[in-house]
Amino acid sequence: MTDIKGIISATAIALDEYGAVNENGSRQIIRHNIDKMGCSGLFVAGSTAECSSLSIIDKEEILRFTADEVKGQVPLIAHVGATNIDESIYLGKLAKELGYTAISSVPPFYFKVSYQLYCDWYHRVCDETEMDMLIYNIPHLTGASFTLAQFEELYKHEKIIGVKFTNSDFYMMEQLKRKFPSKLLFAGFDEMLLPALSIGVDGGIGSTYNFNGERANRLYQAYQSSNNQLARELQGECNELIEMVLGYGLFPCLKYALSLQGVESGYCKAPFPSALTDDAKLKFKEESAHLLSNA
C-alpha cells in the first residue's frame, strides 16, 4: 500500500494578473507548505490550483516544476481529472515519468452518465497510466455520488488505493473505513478534520492547509496522542479561521492569507475574483491576525 498519510495540502498555484502560471511564486507556495506548514504530502493541480480554469499546458508545467522543487521530499499526488479521458491519461503517464506517488481524479463531470461508465473510466485510466489512483469524491461539484456497493466494485481494481472523501456523509465515511480497512481514506473538508479522524481516516487533504497546515498538524498529533481537549480547541481555531476565509471568498482570500505569511501567491483566474478588494484585505488582516500569526 502506498505510504501516504497525515496533513496533505491541496496546493495552490500562483498566477499572474493575466492568469498565467507564476512558477517562482508557485515554488514559494510549495516550499511554504513543506517547510513552514509541515505538510506530509502535496495534492497537485487539483481544485485549489483552480484546475478547471487551467489548460493542459498549464497542468503539465505545474506537475513538472512541483516534482523538481520537491525532489522526493514528500509524497506527491497528481490530480489528473478532466472531461477528456485522453488528457487524464496523458497527465497520469507524465506523473509516473516524474516520479509521483499516485494520481487522483474527479469523475468526468460534464455529462451525467451511468455508474458503470464512471467505473470503466477509472479502470481505463488506471490501466493505461499504471499508476495508483485515489478517487476524488466531491459530489456537490461533480454530481457523481457512489454507493458503498459501487465503491466496492471500483476497489476491485488493484490500482485504486482509496478515496479523497469531500463529502459530509460521515455514515458513508465510517462504512468505507470499516468495510475496506486496507484502502486509504482522506477527509476533504478541513472544518471536519477532527470528527473524521475519530472515524479512522488516514489524514486530511485540504485547501486551508496552505496557510493553516501547522495548526492542522498540531490537531492531528493531538488526536494521535489522545489529547482530545487540545484537538477540539485546535479544530475550533481552524474553523474560526475557515469561516473568515469563506466569508471573503475561498480562493482570493487563501492567496491573500499566503501573502500575509510572506509568500508570492499572486492572483486568481476567472471566473473567480482576481484578488480581494483593498477594503476586504484590510478587514481580513485585522480579523485574522490572532489566528494567522499562530497558524
UniProtKB/TrEMBL annotation:
Its EC number is 4.1.3.3. GO terms for molecular function: N-acetylneuraminate lyase activity. Pyruvate binds at residues 48, 205. Coiled coil: none annotated. Keywords: Lyase, Schiff base. GO terms for cellular component: cytosol. GO terms for biological process: N-acetylneuraminate catabolic process. It is an enzyme of class 4 (lyase). It comes from the Bacteria. This is N-acetylneuraminate lyase. It comes from Vibrio sinensis.
